[in-house]
């Protein structure tokens, strides 16, 4: 199996420090010309979890996705329930080549630790990269440290000693400023580009503004190109990233339904409600905004995921698609868990 990060060939002996470096290369004509060199293999995007937000539901798991090319699996976000959903989709943990985290909200990274430790436990010790926003390197290091107790509690009697969890995973932070699509991962089956999006609007100079970032990803295969928005508000960066993609996998929010859910929630104090509603309005995409994005980027198909609120008692999905057709005339699908596109 060959893996490469832009700027150098990946090797199992590569120090973790090198993996932590934010290394990107600009997207350009040479990249698009070389795309034809990727081998032909069936490529599918699997929406493992389609419910937006850190809510426990029966019908929708938290956000997670798998891009599958042949036997290779690439995970895009790993919300709660991702391992169960992988089993349901007949995807093997040992086939995961790379993990991409769009941002550090808990519904997008909540199952990272158990996934990494389970992978290590069942003797998959080849290094898997975890690529995400600033803080990803630190998070991966702390996960490995926190599970030292698990390392010291083997499930075997005798036999060879297992290597440390830290030797089976390597975190890597994306560049803090990434306003042009840039290659962030490449191997013999896919080429992945990323760009910063518009999911955060923090006060200038605040700790959050200096640290927190959110990204969208473009995955190029020999067959088709997929773009996954992650969580974002309207963003010209994402329009550039999604240009002419075969499939746009976009988040979507039904603002009226989301507002109703939040106002009924017992655990949200009154002082937090208005700021939370402001975040929902500014930092997510309504159907109308999804339609404008798809039209401007000239994508061939739209798949809606990260449905917010995405509750079990919803009677239909009209609130997630109403308004898209005003700008975009292509096919639109509202994803369910375990759908394949």
Structure notes:
It is a single chain. This protein has 341 residues and is an alpha/beta fold. It has one domain (3-26, 41-340): Ribonuclease Z/Hydroxyacylglutathione hydrolase-like (Metallo-beta-lactamase, Chain A, 4-Layer Sandwich). The chain is built from 13 helices and 17 strands. The strands form 2 sheets. Strands 1, 2, 3, 10, 11, 12, 13, 14, 15 and 16 form a 10-stranded mixed beta sheet that branches. A 7-stranded mixed beta sheet has the order 9-8-7-6-5-4-17. α10 (255-264) runs antiparallel to α11. The longest helix is centred in the C-terminal third of the chain and has 13 residues, at 270-282. It is globular. It starts with a strand and ends with a strand.
CATH topology (fold) name: Metallo-beta-lactamase, Chain A
Supply the number of structural domains.
Answer: 1
Major beta sheet, specifics? Answer: 10 strands, mixed
CATH architecture: 4-Layer Sandwich
* β-strand amount: 15-25%
Helix amount: 25-40%
Low-pLDDT runs: 1-36
- Would you tell me the overall average pLDDT? 89
Secondary structure layout plus pairing:
Elements: E1 3-5, E2 8-9, H1 16-19, E3 25-26, H2 29-34, E4 43-49, E5 64-69, E6 72-78, H3 82-88, E7 96-100, H4 106-109, H5 112-121, E8 128-132, H6 136-146, H7 148-151, E9 169-173, E10 182-187, E11 191-196, H8 207-211, E12 215-220, E13 225-228, H9 236-241, E14 247-253, H10 255-264, H11 270-282, H12 287-297, E15 302-308, H13 318-321, E16 332-334, E17 339-340
Parallel strand pairs: 6-7, 7-8, 8-9, 13-14, 14-15, 15-16
Antiparallel strand pairs: 1-2, 1-10, 3-10, 4-5, 4-17, 5-6, 10-11, 11-12, 12-13
Helix pairs in contact: 10-11
């Amino acid at each position: 199996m060959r893996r490469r990060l832009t700027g150098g060939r990946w090797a199992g002996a590569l120090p973790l420090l090198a993996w932590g470096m934010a290394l990107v290369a600009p997207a350009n004509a040479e990249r698009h010309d070389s795309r034809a060199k990727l081998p032909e293999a069936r490529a599918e995007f699997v929406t493992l979890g389609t419910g937006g937000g850190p809510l426990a539901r029966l019908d929708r798991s938290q956000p997670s996705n798998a891009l599958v090319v042949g036997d290779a699996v690439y995970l895009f976000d790993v919300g709660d329930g991702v391992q169960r959903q992988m089993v349901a989709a007949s995807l093997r943990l040992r086939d995961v080549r790379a993990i991409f985290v769009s941002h550090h909200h808990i519904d997008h990274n909540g199952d990272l630790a158990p996934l990494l430790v389970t992978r290590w436990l069942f003797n998959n010790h080849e290094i898997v990269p975890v690529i995400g926003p600033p803080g990803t390197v630190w998070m991966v290091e702390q996960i490995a440290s926190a599970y030292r107790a698990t390392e010291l509690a083997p499930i075997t009697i005798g036999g060879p000693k297992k290597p440390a969890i830290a030797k089976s995973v390597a975190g890597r932070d994306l560049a803090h400023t990434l306003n042009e699509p840039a290659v962030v991962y490449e191997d013999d089956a896919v080429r992945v580009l990323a760009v910063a999006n518009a999911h955060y609007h923090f006060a200038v100079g605040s700790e959050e503004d200096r640290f927190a970032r959110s990204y969208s990803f473009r995955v190029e295969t020999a067959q088709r190109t997929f773009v996954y928005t992650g969580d974002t508000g309207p963003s010209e960066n994402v329009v550039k990233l999604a240009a002419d993609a075969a499939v746009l996998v976009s988040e979507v929010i039904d603002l009226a339904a989301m507002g109703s859910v939040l106002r009924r929630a017992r655990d949200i104090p009154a002082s937090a409600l208005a700021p939370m509603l402001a975040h929902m309005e500014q930092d997510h995409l309504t159907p109308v905004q999804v339609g404008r994005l798809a039209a401007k980027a000239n994508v061939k198909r739209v798949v809606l995921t990260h449905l917010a609120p995405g509750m079990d008692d919803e009677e239909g999905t009209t609130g997630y698609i109403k308004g898209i057709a005003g700008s975009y005339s292509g096919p639109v699908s509202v994803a369910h868990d375990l759908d394949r596109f």
